[in-house]
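ARCHIVE CARD
Drawer: 12
Card no.: 0347
Subject: one protein chain, sequence and derived structure
Cross-reference: see card 0346
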Amino acid sequence: MLNKKIMIVLLALGALVIIALLGVSYQLSSKIRAELELTLNDHLSQAVNTYTQRGLNISYAPFVCLGMSSYQCISKHITLIDSHTGEEVAKVAGLALHIDEIQTGSMQISLGADHLSFSGIQKAIQESKNQELLDLYTVLMPESFVCHEKDIVSDKHSGAVSSQRQCTFKAQGIQYRYSFDGRVKSPDFADKTILNAMISYYGSLSLLDKLSSGELQADFAIDHIAFVLTSSHLKDTLYPILEADYRQHHPKTKIPFDTKAYHQALENIRGFIDFGLTFSGLGVGPYAYGLQQFFDGIVAMAEGEVSEVSIQLIPKNNPAPYFSLTPDTISNLTKLGTQQRLLAKVFNHYNLQVSTQALKAPDKPAKPSKSDKSDTTH
């Protein structure tokens, strides 16, 4: 009987301890969740004020955060609206931020959206009455995205944080991937949790007024950056679009639209791209050959020869040096002289590398053995 009572008491004490721990955990989780929700909506509100001054209104559903050990914050929509016409310019629907793992000096997050729309671009194309361009927009414009990021405090005294990020944007006819490895160092991070530091950092990056005022004091280093296009059926997507355009511009021709005509249409598009490179100044210089290779790869993808084309910046020295974006540089980003100086820094410190991956031929069905021949006649 005594042993039974002791067992009941121990079980009761154990239950009380578990309840107490759960209560503390819930209070801590609730506090973090509330702070996260407040911070996200505060930065969103600041963005609204900033872009309103630039002729864009932002309509949005505030972030709502859920979870205890891991957190999920969702905004049902964020919409950019032209303040002069009242028309929608772009919209992100179902924007979700997931805090997958968070510790004292590191965290893993993911950010994604169920649907992306760019009504402003689509309307401009429709008004141009260029059906080919509209069809290309339909199959090449991203419709959704997801990003994964890991941030680690590499030096808490100097406020240095290392980041690894991978994003995938999906369209009907192609997939865009972006990856980034880099570091940021700011005295403002030294006395903040990594979560608040990164929210503050990205919030400031999205607001040019904060950057140009010098409110964000940070040094940046890019250890690797890559952009990858992937599609195993781009030719199947583009061929009917270019054929329809050919028929529209040659209604009386008896010459069929064949592989040769398709190739010529791609070459015409490539000519416009080459003109754009030359006009922008990127057609010459240390990256000219790499950019030519990149667009050659895209043409090869459209020809059904490759399934992947990647272009990446790799630092000449390891680790890559830190650099600063001064308020003066931010204020003059649209000026040609500023852009040329930034490009010169990139040229000096990074090599451009391009690669392609051949499209795999579909597997041929295995030839039946003599013993199986009778089964193939059904």
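Annotation on reverse: The first strand starts at residue 56 and ends at 60. DSSP finds ten helices and 13 strands in the chain.
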